[in-house]
Amino acid sequence: MDPGLTRCGVGVVEGVAGRPLTMIGVGVVRTPADADLGSRLVAIEQGIEQWLDEHRPECVAVERVFSQHNVRTVMGTAQASAVALLCASRRGIPVALHTPSEVKAAVTGSGRADKAQVGAMVTRLLRLGAPPKPADAADALALAICHIWRAPAQNRLQQAVALHTSKGRTA
Amino acid sequence: MDPGLTRCGVGVVEGVAGRPLTMIGVGVVRTPADADLGSRLVAIEQGIEQWLDEHRPECVAVERVFSQHNVRTVMGTAQASAVALLCASRRGIPVALHTPSEVKAAVTGSGRADKAQVGAMVTRLLRLGAPPKPADAADALALAICHIWRAPAQNRLQQAVALHTSKGRTA
C-alpha cells in the first residue's frame, strides 16, 4: 500500500523471489479533498478493509513515510499510513515498512529512479500490457514486489518453497 | 485527546461556556515503545474505544499536529491522531482540531504559556485538588476546555442552554 489521503495505492502480488510474480489486483482508494479529515480516514479504512476482505494477504507492505516532502502532505500521508497499519495489524497480518528508495532500488536497481522507470519495471516484472495508472497504483505494486524480494523470512509461501527445495536436495 | 504513540492523553469535561466546568474523567492510553508500530496503533485504538464506550462524548477535540517539533515525534503524533480521528468519526461524533497555542491561549490567556501554567489553570478551572499528571492528561483536559469555550455551535448542551436563555428573555 502506498498511503495517501487523496489516493491510497493498493497492489496485490503473489509469488516468491526468483520466480515470475503475478499481479492479483491493483487499485486506488480515493477520498475527496473537500471532506473533513475524520471522514477521509474513515473512507480509507473502509476501502482498505474491502481490499483485505477480498484478497486476505499473508503480509502487508506499507511505504515508510519520510518528511523530506512538504509538511502538509507528510502529515496526511502519515495519517493515511496509520490507517493502513491499523487495518492490517488488527487482523494479525504482519506489516512491513519499506522506504521509497528501497522500493525503487529493488525494482529498478537505483534508489533514485523516477516514476516512469518504476512503472516500466513493474509492467515488465508482472508481465502487464501497460504501466498501471495512476502512479500510486504502480508504486503499490512496486512495494509489494520489493517486499517479496526483500523479506523472504516473512513470506510463508517462500518458506514452503525453500523447505520443499531443501527437502528435495536432502532426499 | 492529546495524541501520542507513547502516551495519548484523554480528558472528559462536561459543561458550557460561562458556567463552571466539571471533569468527568482523565487518563492516558499508553503503548510500549518497543512494540511494532502496527501493534501500538491497535492498542491506541482499543484504549480510545474504551474511553468512547464509557463516556459517549457528544464531541471530540484532538490536538492539531504541527511539524515544528522533531520529525520522528511528529510522525508518531500524526499517526496516533489519525487513530483518534478515525475512532470518533467512525461513530459519527463531530471532531474538532485545535492547535497547541489555541489551547494555551484559551486556558491561560497566552499562546506561549508553559506546561506548569496550563496545569495550574486546568486545576483551577475544573476545581481539582492537584494538577493532573502526566502533562498529557492535563493537556487533554485543557483541549476539552478550549473546545467548550471556542466552539459553542458544536456543543448541543450549550445550544440548549442558549435556547433556554433566549426563550427566558423573550418570554
TrEMBL record, chains A, B:
Cellular location(s): Cytoplasm
Q: Which coarse location class applies to the principal site listed for this UniProt protein?
A: cytoplasm
**Keywords for this entry?**
Cytoplasm, DNA damage, DNA recombination, DNA repair, DNA-binding, Endonuclease, Hydrolase, Magnesium, Metal-binding, Nuclease
Q: Which residues form the active site?
A: 2, 63, 136
Q: Where does Mg(2+) 2 bind?
A: 63
Show the Gene3D superfamilies listed in the entry. Answer: Ribonuclease H-like superfamily/Ribonuclease H
Q: Has keyword Amino-acid biosynthesis?
A: no
Under InterPro entries, the record lists: RNaseH-like_sf, RNaseH_sf, X-over_junc_endoDNase_Mg_BS, X-over_junc_endoDNase_RuvC
Q: Name one GO cellular component term.
A: Holliday junction resolvase complex
Catalysis: reaction(s): Endonucleolytic cleavage at a junction such as a reciprocal single-stranded crossover between two homologous DNA duplexes (Holliday junction)
Question: Which CDD domains does this entry report, sorted A to Z?
Answer: RuvC
User: Under which main EC class is this enzyme filed?
Assistant: hydrolase
GO process annotations (BP): DNA recombination; DNA repair
- Name the residues that bind Mg(2+) 1: 2, 136
A Pfam family of this chain? RuvC
Cofactor list: Mg(2+)
Q: What is its EC number?
A: 3.1.21.10
Q: How is the cofactor bound?
A: Binds 2 Mg(2+) ion per subunit.
Claim: DNA repair is one of the keywords in the record: yes
What are the GO MF terms of this UniProt record? crossover junction DNA endonuclease activity; DNA binding; magnesium ion binding
Q: What job does the chain carry out?
A: The RuvA-RuvB-RuvC complex processes Holliday junction (HJ) DNA during genetic recombination and DNA repair. Endonuclease that resolves HJ intermediates. Cleaves cruciform DNA by making single-stranded nicks across the HJ at symmetrical positions within the homologous arms, yielding a 5'-phosphate and a 3'-hydroxyl group; requires a central core of homology in the junction. The consensus cleavage sequence is 5'-(A/T)TT(C/G)-3'. Cleavage occurs on the 3'-side of the TT dinucleotide at the point of strand exchange.
HAMAP family to which the protein is assigned, alphabetical? RuvC
Give the family, as the similarity comment puts it.
Belongs to the RuvC family.
Q: How does it assemble?
A: Homodimer which binds Holliday junction (HJ) DNA. The HJ becomes 2-fold symmetrical on binding to RuvC with unstacked arms; it has a different conformation from HJ DNA in complex with RuvA. In the full resolvosome a probable DNA-RuvA(4)-RuvB(12)-RuvC(2) complex forms which resolves the HJ.
Q: Which PANTHER family match?
A: CROSSOVER JUNCTION ENDODEOXYRIBONUCLEASE RUVC (PTHR30194:SF3)
Name-wise, this protein is: Crossover junction endodeoxyribonuclease RuvC
